[in-house]
Please model this.
Amino acid sequence: MAEKWKERAVIVRQDEIATNVYSIWFQTEKIAGAAKPGQFISVFGEEGSRLLPRPISICEMNKEKGMLRIVYRIAGKGTEEFSRYRAGAALSIMGPLGNGYTLKKKRALLIGGGIGIPPLVELAKQLKCEKQIVAGYRDEIFLAETLSKYGTLTIATENGSIGVKGTVLDAIEEKGIEADIIYACGPTPMLRAVKEYAARKGMEAQISLEERMACGIGACLACVCQSKETDSHTNVKNKRVCKDGPVFQAEEVEL
Amino acid sequence: MNTKVTIAGVELQNPVMTASGTFGSGQEYSELVDLNRLGAVVTKGVSKEPWQGNPTPRIAETYGGMLNAIGLQNPGVDLFVKRDIPFLKKYHTKIIVNVCGKSESDYCEVVERLSGEPVDMLEINISCPNVKEGGIAFGQDAKAVESITREIKRYAKQPVIMKLSPNVTSIADMAKAAEAGGADAISLINTLTGMKIDIHRKNFALANRTGGLSGPAIKPVAVNMVYQASHAVKLPVIGMGGIASWEDAVEFMLAGATAVSIGTANFYQPDTTIQVVEGIEHYLEQYGYQDVNEIIGMV
Model:
């Protein structure tokens, strides 16, 4: 049983790192100390009319300083509220939540799409092996400099303004990138394509899913995804994204 | 000071419970909440066979509340009995199992299956707005409420709580029907049917189109219905609907509730139940009451 905490965490700094994409460093010794790459935290608003936490993936940790970073996009009023807080303000957060990636000592291919890119940072930092990182953006890029510190970075943009024009898979093919395992996070169409690619290549792929959540800890059954086999906990073909995921073996879920 | 309340002969150490569907069978929340301090854990609805539930998105946030259309996904009574009841038995709290079904005989089979289990009470869900068959279909007609209550009582070995829907013209009539059918207690309110539309996608926010509204936004509706129902029948009433603080809980008790359930608040404030347990004690102290039963139905 992994420990989790709900606490008030002070914002050490907040920056807009691309249009409507924000980065927060929280001071949170316990959560930062326990977190693993691919896990997420629940972030709670202060305003009162919006009750549910926003599940946001952990971008990276600084365990020495007891700090944890999230990078998120403004997607509605809840995340817009978060973006208004400055250093010194505090928010309620709960975590670390979910399972995270299982790190293997194999030639790794990290694939991120859009706001699915942030969790690749801590993953790339912790993977001790040969790493190829492919990041797909619409147009404006973020976290590219950070990612390139930890592996060979290839960028794909929809309009071709930077890097390869096209999808992450177009970039993988164009650059002839080879690997033994895939770790991916991004929108469902991208994950579907990654799953199909991994199956074709006979590679293991760990993919991180997103779904609307309420409790964030596996009790309410709001955020289920369809599983290939009957799940041992739910006893139906559903897995809980917040608790059994968000990271799944690609072949165990239907997308 | 006495905080114990008794419902249908079952003594609870305090009047605070969880609301069905918001707390699983307690396992996940046990990492954040000491279940030993709760009056009772009310489990998520359990049916004869495993239920898959509805497609996603299953929830949507609304002003001061949320809509859900989980669709009573559950592992079925066999796995529930094998796994969840033994888990809850480890704690010093009462176990109330919520039962759902698609037909009268479904409910009765589950109730019968639970008759030999160490379960303290049964709560019968005839008010879920999110499933096509069963659920609310039994809860919107007084004759149907009376008939299913009577049928379930024939099979039940534990006290039966009928969980009522607010989506009715007269909650008093439904409460009376449950009483006439032989219910031992009633609980209310379940969620209010609602809809949210995503104006950017120009589509329903929930895959099920409609869902059940819960959270602080529905509390005044719930307080009124608890008041109406508790004046209509002699049965003990378990009050719920938007309780997020001890003040809310006291309001329900003053309106006539013998016990209260915390639902949606668990999602954003996992220790709400504990705060309510402690807050009620402080309230009694503040006003010099020796016994929590003194405030039930005081207004």
About this structure: Chain A has three domains: 5-97, 108-208, 211-247.
